[in-house]
Write a structure and sequence with these properties.
264 residues; alpha/beta; 11 helices
Length: 264
């Protein structure tokens, strides 16, 4: 019987220890596989911590140095970018492939804007240009997100996941929300999404940028995917036929092929 995602999560955390650093009063946490190859920093989206990359960490963690980061309850992309730079200083990582998913794909662009010397390559995965891309989805209505209490938002998302069809992804998301991600953290990430503005042009070559999306992504509509690609016309555009909003979990083979190419 193949291991479930929760089995893999237990294996991951028996193999690698969490590390922490407080930056300007905010706690950052990460797993570092210490692999022999080049480094990649993995940044999760709105739901979950760095262990959302569990399949990738177990599959490639010895081949690459993978640093999977849990970032704090902060909505401002510049603050997050500067915090990540301090984490990289702390672990003596001058530069790496920066791999963002969803909200982190947004603020990873600001990391490349503010700290271009730290970016060997940039993967903008299942991302968006700004909050207007998701405004038609009631879950990302700015007025709602700015007005809701963190505990209510957290409870709503936990309820949605518990009422969703049974799947390994839903089981992992439930563990993340019920046990590992605070209401304040989830709310800050949603605020970061709905308040997001287009990132200015990046001071890194287009050849070092990959825009990754999935045809079956239920959260990022086709028009938003096209808009993001149009912002980086000379970058590498990779579309996976399947993977939903979490290709690192739902299409690990396709996702890991992209990561290996970008980290090399």
């Amino acid at each position: 019987m193949s291991a479930t995602l929760l089995d893999k999560l237990a294996e991951l955390e028996s193999r690698y220890a969490w590390n922490t650093l407080t930056v300007d009063g905010h706690e950052w946490r990460w797993l570092d596989t210490g692999g022999a190859g080049k480094a990649a920093v993995l940044l999760p989206g709105s739901v979950g911590d760095g262990a959302m990359f569990v399949s990738t960490l177990l599959s490639l963690g010895e081949r690459l140095r993978l640093v999977a980061v849990t970032y704090p309850a902060e909505a401002d992309p510049a603050t997050l970018a500067d915090g990540l730079a301090q984490v990289m200083d702390y672990i003596d990582l001058p530069a790496a492939a920066i791999v963002g998913s969803s909200f982190a794909a947004y603020w990873a662009q600001h990391f490349a804007l503010l700290h271009p010397q730290r970016v060997r390559s940039l993967v903008i995965g299942n991302g968006f240009t700004d909050g207007s891309d998701l405004a038609d989805n009631p879950l990302f209505d700015r007025r709602y997100v700015e007005g809701v209490e963190p505990e209510a938002l957290h409870a709503e998302w936990l309820g949605r996941i518990r009422n969703a069809p049974a799947s390994e992804l839903a089981q992992l998301q439930e563990v993340m929300l019920a046990q590992r991600q605070s209401p304040e953290n989830l709310h800050a990430r949603f605020l970061g999404v709905v308040r997001s503005m287009p990132c200015p042009a990046l001071p890194i070559p287009a050849s070092r940028i990959t825009v990754l999306d999935c045809q079956d992504d239920p959260l990022i509509p086709p028009a938003a995917r096209a808009r993001l690609r149009s912002n980086y016309p000379e970058a590498r555009h990779t579309t996976l036929e399947r993977g939903g909003h979490y290709p690192h979990l739902l299409n690990p083979v396709g996702y890991e092929a992209v990561l290996l190419r970008c980290a090399s």
